[in-house]
Amino acid sequence: MSILSIFVIIPALMLVGLWLAKNVNQVRGVMVTGASCLLALSVWLTIYFIQERAAGNTAEMLLTYSTPWFKPLNIAYSVGVDGISVVMLLLSSIIVFTGTFASWQLKPLTKEYFLWFTLLSTGVYGFFISTDLFTMFMFYEVALIPMYLLIGVWGSGRKEYSAMKLTLMLMGGSALLILGLLGIYYFNGIYSGNYTFELTTIAANHCIPGHIQNIFFPFIFIGFGVLGALFPFHTWSPDGHASAPTAVSMLHAGVLMKLGGYGCFRVAMYLLPEAAQDLSWIFLILTTISVVYGALSACVQTDLKYINAYSSVSHCGLVLFALLMMSQTAVTGAVLQMLSHGLMTALFFALIGMIYGRTHTRDIRELAGLMKIMPFLAVGYVIAGLANLGLPGFSGFIAEMTIFVGSFGAHPLSGDPNTSFRMVATIIACMSIVVTAVYILRVVGKILYGEVENKHFLELTDATWDERVAVICLIFCVAGLGSFPFWVSDMISPAAGTILESIGVM
């Protein structure tokens, strides 16, 4: 059995431990122990992967393992990782670890909350290590199902409506997704004589005709794109984020939405390369709209969570935008953006939850002078905002610069007479940087500075030790990725190049 399976075994053991826990302290102990083990395992995996590549191991996937679990359909439990998978596992572990501390004081039903939270994280880990399409889809669904209860029971505001809307839209995306996956399975089997769900085998066969690829590519890209907040299927995201409890918002925006971008690249574009080239212009238009629309919508919001939610629509749209540019630099930037946005938005939602827990409002019109009352949280919010708008030294800058440099330098694809269309789309997407600065600085100025208008706020306290742990860890990661990005990009770039070679654009 591959060591990668431990990423699923640890959460499974955590579920057992949580079920047996008798009180809140035992629940916290199980969560901290499990989250720490997952973080340590992901750090070890990252170091191991770097060492293997340095030693000359050029295999597409490392630590592979496969065992059949439904032979009639050739469904197998198959796992393996490349550089993109490894950094996604590392991101997931960081968010689960910090989310545990961000939820330290959560009440009521603490035990039940962490049970569903752990089940959600199990699906995320399983998805990123899977190389069998059916197994990947199974873990994908495991990651989505707990969201309904986590928002509907522990959420705030219009939580029932938000939970139902999120679930219905994501299940609709899943319906499209399973149709696309079954289409790949069936037609790959017909033309290759080998019916399999194994991702690398299907990619190597490269036998599905282009006209059939054009039918199933939209199913898979939209299916994953719904989770990645692709316009116009993004409307569940702001409502879901606004109603979700703090740690769920952190994991949802920080990791779960990354399943969308990862799936679009790893499955839709990798397995259906001709359709990716033929139809990319359609989805490039939609992703460009997502980038600009999300940023402009954030400017007119007054709820802190809605502002960050629409910001996530913009940033996740930028991920899909960069993937569709299909240049190695742009795709590397897309994965860096997944990491950067995951860390930044987790930090934002953590801070917003901490502020809301004290003030009981997220309306920026009712918040002012927080820098005087809770300086630690206020400084953390400023740092998160500066990272979001792309200040050099933070992760947002290196990710967005890599995307835009790669997009401007993208070579013409087969059938493209010139790059003018992509160049125009890139210029429009670049405009979102200015808009992002507008809404970030607007919010910072409104809620942190000026005189305290609500005198009851003067009695509020600053961050507790558990909250400081979560915030400091995330700030450290955001600054670390922004200051030392090359070891990450060196892991991502070869994996991106392998997939792009399969697509036929390198």
UniProtKB/TrEMBL annotation:
<feature type="transmembrane region" description="Helical">
    <location>
        <begin position="29"/>
        <end position="50"/>
    </location>
</feature>
<feature type="transmembrane region" description="Helical">
    <location>
        <begin position="338"/>
        <end position="357"/>
    </location>
</feature>
<dbReference type="InterPro" id="IPR003918">
    <property type="entry name" value="NADH_UbQ_OxRdtase"/>
</dbReference>
<dbReference type="GO" id="GO:0048039">
    <property type="term" value="F:ubiquinone binding"/>
</dbReference>
<dbReference type="GO" id="GO:0042773">
    <property type="term" value="P:ATP synthesis coupled electron transport"/>
</dbReference>
<dbReference type="GO" id="GO:0016020">
    <property type="term" value="C:membrane"/>
</dbReference>
<feature type="transmembrane region" description="Helical">
    <location>
        <begin position="215"/>
        <end position="234"/>
    </location>
</feature>
<comment type="similarity">
    <text>Belongs to the complex I subunit 4 family.</text>
</comment>
<keyword id="KW-0812">Transmembrane</keyword>
<feature type="transmembrane region" description="Helical">
    <location>
        <begin position="166"/>
        <end position="187"/>
    </location>
</feature>
<feature type="transmembrane region" description="Helical">
    <location>
        <begin position="255"/>
        <end position="273"/>
    </location>
</feature>
<protein>
    <submittedName>
        <fullName>NADH dehydrogenase subunit M</fullName>
    </submittedName>
</protein>
<feature type="transmembrane region" description="Helical">
    <location>
        <begin position="6"/>
        <end position="22"/>
    </location>
</feature>
<dbReference type="InterPro" id="IPR001750">
    <property type="entry name" value="ND/Mrp_TM"/>
</dbReference>
<feature type="transmembrane region" description="Helical">
    <location>
        <begin position="75"/>
        <end position="101"/>
    </location>
</feature>
<feature type="transmembrane region" description="Helical">
    <location>
        <begin position="279"/>
        <end position="300"/>
    </location>
</feature>
<feature type="transmembrane region" description="Helical">
    <location>
        <begin position="307"/>
        <end position="326"/>
    </location>
</feature>
<feature type="transmembrane region" description="Helical">
    <location>
        <begin position="469"/>
        <end position="488"/>
    </location>
</feature>
<dbReference type="Pfam" id="PF00361">
    <property type="entry name" value="Proton_antipo_M"/>
</dbReference>
<dbReference type="GO" id="GO:0015990">
    <property type="term" value="P:electron transport coupled proton transport"/>
</dbReference>
<dbReference type="GO" id="GO:0003954">
    <property type="term" value="F:NADH dehydrogenase activity"/>
</dbReference>
<feature type="transmembrane region" description="Helical">
    <location>
        <begin position="423"/>
        <end position="449"/>
    </location>
</feature>
<feature type="transmembrane region" description="Helical">
    <location>
        <begin position="113"/>
        <end position="131"/>
    </location>
</feature>
<feature type="transmembrane region" description="Helical">
    <location>
        <begin position="137"/>
        <end position="154"/>
    </location>
</feature>
<feature type="domain" description="NADH:quinone oxidoreductase/Mrp antiporter transmembrane">
    <location>
        <begin position="130"/>
        <end position="412"/>
    </location>
</feature>
<keyword id="KW-1133">Transmembrane helix</keyword>
<dbReference type="InterPro" id="IPR010227">
    <property type="entry name" value="NADH_Q_OxRdtase_chainM/4"/>
</dbReference>
<dbReference type="GO" id="GO:0008137">
    <property type="term" value="F:NADH dehydrogenase (ubiquinone) activity"/>
</dbReference>
<keyword id="KW-0472">Membrane</keyword>
<dbReference type="GO" id="GO:0012505">
    <property type="term" value="C:endomembrane system"/>
</dbReference>
